[in-house]
Specification:
single chain, mainly alpha, two-stranded antiparallel ribbon, 69% helix, elongated, DNA-binding, repeat, E_motif, TPR-like_helical_dom_sf, PPR_At4g14850-like_plant
Length: 648
DNA sequence: TTAGGGTTAG
C-alpha cells in the first residue's frame, strides 16, 4: 500500500524529470529516513523508461542495505548485471557494501573477488564486512592482500581494522593498528582516534585509551570520544571514574546523549552504585530517554542484577517493544536469584512470541539451571543449543561446562570441554573450578598445569580457583607456590579474595598463628571475608585466644553481625568454658544483635517444605528424622541409601 | 567512530 503523501510527492514532480533529478530525489528520501519511498521512486523511474545511471545503483543499493533486505538486494544485483555498469568499480563497491549490510559477507566476498578492478573504497567495504563478521586473523589477511596490491590505507581502512581488533578484544592487534595509523599519518583523524579509545577500552587497557583520549585536542573531541572513554570505565564497573568523566564532559560544554546515559548506567551494576543508577534512571525519565529500548534493557539488567527483580519485571512488562536483549536481561535476573521456574517460564514465553534466543540468552538460561542444580533441564537446553546451531558457540559451551559441573556431572562437563576447539581463559577457569567444586583437587591442578604448558595466561580468577582447590585439599606448599607465581611471574596483584583463600588454607591446617601473621602483614586492609576465613578455622581448631582477637576485628567491621558472637560462644562451649559462652551471649543481648536460625527449603511436587535445626513441627517430622538417622548410619557403613521419607 | 543482555569467583 503506497501512502498518499508519497503519491502527492510524486505528483509534484516535473513531467519529464532527468535521471539526475530522479537520483537526487531518491537520495534525499534516503537521507530523510524514508527508505520505502526511495524504492518506490526507483520503481517509478524504471516505469517511466528512464535508464538508471552510474549513480543510481549505489544510491538504491544503500536503500536496500538500510532495510537489510536480501531479496531486494539480489534484484538490484540482477539489474546491475544487465546494465552497462556491471564492471564499474563504484557500482560494484556499492554491491559489496550492500551484501555486507544484509549480513551476507560470503556473497559480498564473491562480488569482491570477481571485480575487474578495485580501489581503496572497495577494499575498505570488504575489510569493514570482515571486521563485523569474521575473526581478526582473516581481517588482517585481507589487509595484507590490500597492501600487496599496492593500495595505501586511509582513515576508513584504519577504522575498519580498529573495529575488528576491538570486536575480537585483541590488544596486540589494537596496538598494531595504532602503529600503522601513526606511521601513515592517519592518527590525527578524530573518528579513527575514537575507535582506538574503544579498542583499548574493550581490551581492558584503560591507560592507553586515556592516552589516546588526552591526545585529541579539546576542541576536536566529539561526543563519541567522551562516550567511548566513559564506556571503557563502565566496562570495568569503574563508576566513580565514569561519572567523573561525565562531569568533565558537561563542563567542556559537550552535551551527553543517549549512549552516554546507557554507558553510565551500565557502570552502576554493583551494590555500591545503586544511588548513582537511580539518579540516571530519574534523569532518563526527565529527558524522555526512558522510552528507548536500549536504555530500558540496561535498566532491567541494573535492577535485576542488584536483586530488585520486581522493578526489573515492572519495566519489562511496561515495554511497548521488546528485543531478545530485554528477555535475556530479565532471565539473567532470575538466574541471579536461582529462580528456575520463573527463568525457564520466561524462556518459553520468549519462544512463544517468536523471538529467537541467541547464544547470550542460552547462557542466561544455563546459568539458571546451574544455580538451581536442575541437570535434566540443563541437558534439555544443551540439546536445544545443538539443534539451533549454537552447540559449538564458545560462550554457550562455557556455560554448559559451568552448568554440568555445578550439577555434579563432571563426565558431561569433560565431554563439553573436549568438544571446544577454541578454549578461552573462561573455559579453562570454569573447568578448574568445576573439578575443585566436585572435590577433584588433583585434577583441578592438573588442568591448570596443562593450561600453563600451552602458554595461556591465567587471570586473577584462575588463581582464585587453584588457590581454593589447594585450601580445600590441604596442599599448603603448593598453594604458597601458586600465590608467589601469581604475584611474581604473572604480576597479578592479589585481591581480598586471594588473601582470604590463603588465610583459609593455613587455618584449615591448624596453622592459625601463621594465618594471623599473614593477615596482619597484608598490604591492604583485610575485610570481613578475610577475618571470617580465620574465625572459621579458629572454630574448627577450638582456638579461643586467636578466635577472640579475630572476633573483635570482625565486630569493628560489621557490628551488627551475629556470626562472630555465635562462633565465639560455640568455641567456648566446646571447651566447657561457660563463662566465655555467657560473656558473648550477654554482648549479643546488649548490642541487640539477633541471629536468625538457619533453615533449609526443599521443594517437592511444587510444595515447599521448610526445616530448621531439631525442628519436629513438620507433619512427618518424626518419620523424617528416623530416615535421616538411618541415612547417616548407612552412609557411615558405605551402604546405598534404601529409605524414602515420602515427602512427595 | 560510541551505548544494551552473557560464561569463570562471591
Amino acid at each position: 500500500m503506497i501512502p498518499t503523501s508519497y503519491t502527492k510527492t510524486l505528483n509534484r514532480f516535473s513531467k519529464f524529470p532527468s535521471v539526475s533529478e530522479w537520483n537526487s530525489k531518491i537520495r534525499s528520501s534516503i537521507s530523510q529516513g524514508c527508505t520505502q519511498k526511495a524504492l518506490l521512486l526507483f520503481r517509478q523511474m524504471k516505469q517511466s523508461s528512464i535508464e538508471p545511471d552510474k549513480l543510481t545503483f549505489p544510491i538504491i543499493a544503500k536503500a536496500s542495505a538500510k532495510l537489510s533486505n536480501l531479496r531486494l538486494s539480489e534484484s538490484i544485483h540482477t539489474h546491475v548485471l544487465k546494465s552497462q555498469f556491471m564492471s564499474d568499480v563504484y557500482v560494484q563497491t556499492a554491491l559489496v557494501d550492500m551484501y555486507v549490510k544484509c549480513g551476507r559477507v560470503d556473497v559480498a566476498r564473491q562480488v569482491f573477488e570477481r571485480m575487474p578492478e578495485r580501489d581503496v573504497a572497495s577494499w575498505n567495504v570488504m575489510i569493514m564486512g570482515f571486521a563485523e563478521f569474521c575473526g581478526a586473523g582473516e581481517v588482517m589477511g585481507l589487509f595484507r592482500q590490500m597492501r600487496v596490491g599496492g593500495f595505501r590505507p586511509d582513515s576508513m581502512t584504519l577504522m575498519a581494522l580498529s573495529i575488528a581488533s576491538s570486536n575480537s578484544q585483541n590488544l596486540n592487534m589494537v596496538r598494531g593498528v595504532h602503529c600503522i595509523g601513526v606511521q601513515t599519518g592517519i592518527d590525527g583523524d578524530v573518528c579513527v582516534a575514537n575507535t582506538w579509545i574503544s579498542g583499548y577500552s574493550k581490551c581492558m587497557d584503560l591507560e592507553s585509551a586515556q592516552m589516546v583520549f588526552r591526545g585529541i585536542p579539546v576542541v576536536v573531541r566529539t561526543v563519541v570520544s567522551w562516550n567511548s572513554m566513559i564506556a571503557g570505565y563502565a566496562f570495568q564497573g569503574k563508576f566513580v571514574e565514569a561519572f567523573g568523566l561525565y562531569r568533565n564532559m558537561c563542563s567542556d560544554c559537550c552535551n551527553p546523549d543517549l549512549s552516554t546515559m546507557v554507558s553510565l548506567l551500565s557502570s552502576c551494576v554493583r551494590p555500591e552504585a545503586l544511588l548513582h543508577g537511580n539518579l540516571i534512571h530519574s534523569h532518563a525519565i526527565q529527558s524522555g530517554f526512558d522510552s528507548d529500548v536500549t536504555l530500558t534493557n540496561t535498566l532491567i539488567s541494573f535492577y535485576a542484577k542488584l536483586g530488585d527483580i520486581d522493578s526489573a519485571r515492572f519495566l519489562f512488562n511496561g515495554m511497548n517493544e521488546r528485543t531478545r536483549v530485554s528477555w535475556t536481561a530479565l532471565i539473567g535476573g532470575y538466574a541471579e536469584k536461582g529462580d528456575v521456574d520463573e527463568g525457564f517460564a520466561l524462556f518459553l514465553a520468549m519462544e512463544a512470541t517468536g523471538e529467537k534466543p541467541d547464544a547470550v540468552t542460552l547462557v542466561a538460561v544455563l546459568s539458571v539451571c546451574g544455580q538451581a542444580g536442575t541437570l535434566e533441564l540443563g541437558r534439555w537446553i544443551h540439546e536445544y543449543a545443538t539443534s539451533n546451531g549454537l552447540g559449538k558457540n564458545v560462550i554457550v559451551c562455557n556455560a554448559l561446562l559451568d552448568m554440568y559441573s555445578k550439577c555434579g556431572s563432571m563426565s558431561e562437563a569433560c565431554e563439553v570441554f573436549l568438544s571446544i576447539s577454541e578454549r578461552t581463559i573462561v573455559t579453562w577457569t570454569t573447568m578448574i573450578t568445576g573439578y575443585a567444586l566436585n572435590g577433584e583437587f588433583k585434577l583441578a591442578l592438573d588442568v591448570f598445569s596443562q593450561m600453563v604448558v600451552l602458554g595461556l595466561r591465567p587471570n586473577h580468577l584462575t588463581f582464585l580457583a587453584v588457590l581454593q582447590a589447594c585450601a580445600h585439599a590441604g596442599f599448603v606448599e603448593k598453594g604458597w607456590m601458586l600465590f608467589r607465581m601469581m604475584t611474581e611471574v604473572y604480576k597479578i596483584s592479589p585481591i581480598l579474595e586471594h588473601y582470604a583463600c590463603i588465610a583459609d588454607m593455613l587455618g584449615r591446617k591448624g596453622r592459625l598463628k601463621e594465618a594471623l601473621e599473614f593477615i596482619q602483614t597484608m598490604p591492604v586492609k583485610p575485610d570481613a571475608g578475610v577475618w571470617g576465613a580465620l574465625l572459621g578455622a579458629c572454630k574448627t581448631h577450638n582456638d579461643a585466644e586467636i578466635g577472640e582477637y579475630v572476633t573483635y576485628r570482625l565486630l569493628e567491621l560489621e557490628p551488627q553481625s551475629a556470626v562472630p558472637y555465635v562462633a565465639m560462644a560455640n568455641i567456648y562451649a566446646s571447651e566447657g568454658k561457660w563463662d566465655g559462652v555467657a560473656k558473648f551471649r550477654a554482648m549479643m543481648r546488649s548490642k541487640k544483635v539477633r541471629k536468625s536460625p538457619g533453615h533449609s527449603l526443599v521443594q517437592v511436587n511444587g510444595k515447599i517444605h521448610t526445616f530448621t535445626v531439631e525442628d519436629m513441627s513438620h507433619p512427618k517430622g518424626l518419620f523424617i528424622f528416623a530416615v535421616l538417622d538411618s541415612l547417616a548410619l548407612q552412609l557411615k557403613e558405605g551402604l546405598e541409601p534404601l529409605l524414602d521419607c515420602g515427602l512427595g
